[in-house]
Structure formats: C-alpha cells, structure tokens
Amino acid sequence: MADGDVDLAPVMQGAAELLLPVITLGEYRFGIRQSRYRARYEKWLTRIVDACRVLTIDRQTAEHYAEVRDELKCAGKPISMNDLWIAALVRQHGLPLLSRDAHFDVVLKLKRIGW
C-alpha cells in the first residue's frame, strides 16, 4: 500500500473485484500533487487504478446523494461533500465500503469495512 499499511493487503486480496469511486480518485490525485513523494505515489496510484474499476457519477447517483444528504441532515449528522458522493455511489451499487472513516457508519444502508 502507499503508506506501507500491511494490514490492508489481506482485506483487499479477499475481494472478488476492487472498485474505486471517482471522487476518491480525485482526492488521491489532489493529495499526490501536494506530496514531496509525488513520483512514488503516482506510480502507486497507477497500479491501483489499473487493478480497479472506477465508479463514475450518473443521474442515479445524484438521487442517492440527495437521499443520503437529507437523511444525514435530518439526523443532525452531516459528513463532507466528497464523502456524501462516495456514500451515494456505494449505496447505488449495493457495495460495502472499505474505509477507516467511522463517520460512514451513520449512513443508513451502508456497510463499512474497517481494518
């Protein structure tokens, strides 16, 4: 893994398919642009993208986004805009989400896999 997180490798190896939300890809690209290890992380990201299918946003994602955002607003538990879009994509496709961010646990109908 990019930061040497060996605990993540077994979790990913057990997956039938790896999918990467386009929003996450954008966040990675932004972070890499800020890094002094840019060349190393760009190579890492290329390997990740080659191993994954990138999930893109469409009209159905927008419906899920509105639904998730409304649910979280009513519950008084907002999350960042990028994470709202990620949650919408995950719910749209009925997928679990691999993340250390526990704030995803407040999103209804979303299963987070932590490590």
Brief characterization of the structure:
This protein has about 120 residues and is mostly helical. It has helices at about 10-15, 20-35, 40-50, 60-75, 80-95; strands spanning about 20, 55, 95-100, 110-115.
State the main characteristics.
55% helix; two-stranded parallel ribbon; 115 residues; 5 helices; Rossmann fold; single chain
How is this structure best described in words?
The longest helix has 17 residues, at 59-75. This protein is mainly alpha-helical. Strands 1-2 form a two-stranded parallel ribbon. Strands 3-4 form a two-stranded parallel sheet. It has 5 helices and 4 strands. It has helices at residues 8-13, 22-34, 38-51, 59-75, 81-93; strands at residues 19-21, 53-55, 97-98, 112-113. Helix 2 (22-34) packs antiparallel against helix 3 and helix 4 (59-75) packs across helix 5. The protein has one domain (8-113): 5'-nuclease (Rossmann fold, 3-Layer(aba) Sandwich).
CATH superfamily: 5'-nuclease
What strand line-up does the widest sheet have?
1-2
User: At CATH's second level, what is the architecture?
Assistant: 3-Layer(aba) Sandwich
Order of helices and strands: HEHHEHHEE
Shape: globular
Strand % is 5-15%
Level-1 CATH class name:
Alpha Beta
C-alpha termini separation: 13 Å
Give a topology summary.
Blueprint: H1 8-13, E1 19-21, H2 22-34, H3 38-51, E2 53-55, H4 59-75, H5 81-93, E3 97-98, E4 112-113
Parallel strand pairs: 1-2, 3-4
